[in-house]
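dumping these here so i dont lose them again. two proteins, back to back, each one seq then structure tokens. dont judge the mess
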Amino acid sequence: MNELVHDQTRDQTRDRTRELASFLAELSYAQIPQHVVERCQALYLDWLGSTLAGKNHAPIPLFEHYSRLMGPSDGGCQQLTDRRMTSPHFAAFVNAAASHVVEQDDLHNSSVLHPATVVFPAALATAQDLGSSGEALITAAVAGYEAGIRIGEFLGRSHYRIFHTTGTAGTLAAAVAAGKLMELDTEGFVNLLGSAGTQAAGLWEFLRDAADSKQLHTAKAASDGLLAAYMTQSGLTGAKHILEGPQGMAAGMSTDADPGQLTDRLGERWALVETSFKYHASCRHTHPAADALLALMQREALTHDDIETVTAKVHQAAIDVLGPVVHPRTIHQAKFSMGSVLGLIAVHGDASLASFRDHALQDEAVTSFRQRVSMVLDPEVDAAYPRRWLGRVEITTRDGRRLSAAMDEPKGDPGNTLSRDELEAKFRRLVTFSGAATDDEVSQLIAHAWDLPAVTRLKPLL
């Protein structure tokens, strides 16, 4: 018993921040398994598509306007939506906002973090500023994913109930990606995490008002990550235990933090490959039920007129995030409405960008269906979350039948992932939606992503 108590005490006093920082400092491209590199390239392509899809999508022109007001116009870094050349800070700021607005960017389940939308804007801007190689960009992105995911897992479910993890943990993930391109040592990463963590923010309250804060969260996470990295490189010090310290992030932002998650199998478990692609253009909490409903309707050959009610059996976080959106007033808010998403699935067969644009608010059939949808907390689904996002729906039909369907791995999860062809098709759909690039440019960007390890110096992409 005494030995057990001694082991527990020793574990509690481990400097996990430094352990994480040491791993990040020592990580090299040669250490990253090939399948992780290839998954990183796929996530990078997916992020490019999400970013370009944000062109002219509200509120992205406001972010571009701010950049024109406050940022230089002669830098070496590119805002992808308007192709403006500016500083790393403003390129990361605009690209991070743009890549999160159409709700097609990736998600890591157990951390409930959207890594790409904060990691790649910071990494690409820094790489263009420093003239880094494709291999260096990949290494930086892997470092950002591995750190950000573990920090999200560390902060736990209680954190996500109030805080948007992509805004909070995402700030540190972005900082790590930029810091890796600067080749910081262990002490540098300790300071970097401290300076990034003290800036971390992002609250879910915006959903009640259909506000634009979600894009501000990612824009600030990426640009504040750059601020932390560039200032650390210049000599700024940060808190040594910003994560697990008595007045650190967990103390102020979590009631169930687990310090062990910060160093979980570093170098053995590659959390990046656990990241899911988003198939539907909506909040990820809607996807399991959407897939289950689609499967049920196909199985039973049902139309939306055949269905009297739908009950989505969900985890608590889905209720926390989606519950406040009862009567969506904007397209973006509709993406956080379970009824709107299931209405698009039932009436139009998909929840794509085009379907949201054309039908989410103005289609009376979708509006009518939305009113027939409810969510209930399901113990099985909630117990599996966040490591697994289970889809369970029950319906009653107008002729009195009660039917159900289950989906254990939503489309896009690692066990039900998108193929290379599907990823390229998604990329083309996203760019076509916004008209952000020509067909030739689209082909060049796809080739760029798959050839990224061979790039000797990152330059403007468009």
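---- next one ----
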Amino acid sequence: MSVVTSPTSFAEQLDVEKDSLKFGFIKLTDCAPIVIAKEKGFFDDEGLQVDVVAQPNWKTLLDNVISGDLDGAHMLSGQPLAATIGFGTKAHIITSFTMDLNGNGITVSNNVWKQMQGNDPKLDSDTPPHPITADSLVPVVKEKLADGEKLQMGMVFPTSTHNYELRYWLAAAGINPGMYTKSDVGGRTDAQVELSVTPPPMMPATLESGNIQGYCVGEPWNQKAVSMGIGVPVTTNYDIWKNNPEKVFGVSKSWADENPNTYIAVTKALILAGQWLDEIDADGNFKNREEAARILSRSDYVGADYDIIKNSMTGFFMFQKTDKREMPEFNVFFKGHATYPWYSDGVWFLTQMRRWGQISEARPKSWYLETAKSVYKPAIYLKAAEMLLEEGKVKKADIPWDTDGFKVATTDFIDGVEYDGKEPIKYLNSHKIGNKDPEAKSTH
């Protein structure tokens, strides 16, 4: 695949400040760039000795990055932004690398799925039409409310993509997933469906126990529900927002300031790992994903069955045992400039924090753009990419050299609402459910 470098490679000319590193991850397949950078020698090639250590949950992972127990970690895209603005733990966290696009699903219990099928006969099929909206869930939610109960659904963390995607899917059908307020950190004010935090590997067991009736999580924990026969994935985040950003590699700003060359070297290795993961053969098939799935299935990494991990990693997704679909972009690790840290990605997460009340007061447009730029660091990414280009390890076309950091406006959402990262207030106000702000409000 790549050019083999000599022992006196450009990489070794980087005078790294710290060559022994520890990175954290959560047991999800999209930790793959960190794992592959270690297992395939991309970190080694940069003169870095890296330990990769599983973390029990997202809060502990973030706390360990802040304390310095970890040098960096696989993070939810919302985590660096939330920490930097002080929602939850306050600390300036930055990212130079987006780890992947897509990769999540929403799964409901067998009982809820049967009710959804009863409400929409098109769903009562071995291969129902996709995408599946939450419209058929509305009567289920209303029936629960009439009985004095609320449908319970799990997500992995308050500032996770999963929380915002689940909320987006529900709200697109007119279901209020609840608001965060200063006195309601659980985000359940006015909720018609109650969302709660469950660590990813615990999702299937929590569903099976009946404590929740559905969840939004990354792989392999949707496919696990299918294999156990306890639930049905009804949609993926590819259908909620096509090619949405999922995880980032996060470090504290203080660590990055102290270790600038190390940070570039780490970013180089991660770019190459992403490229390796997305490499295809002449027929368009993934060359390395089966090997990646075997590595990830190890107990020290994701620790799920190879066959379950292999599904989504090799471009398939099983909604039901009768409904296995080709989804070559279920996980994207490199192509389409996936790894670049786009400002517009950061702005989207900030709009969702404001939409649901995690940001408690209106902010002007400039605040969204400035906050995204304080967290997303494309200059570091481009420095790493420039070195890789000189080494002959990436192609010029694979890197967005001249972008202003904003993707073009898109309507690739399940409700067709347009998102333009340069117009956060306009986007916020385009949704029926959630906070809305005056266009010209200036509180800072």
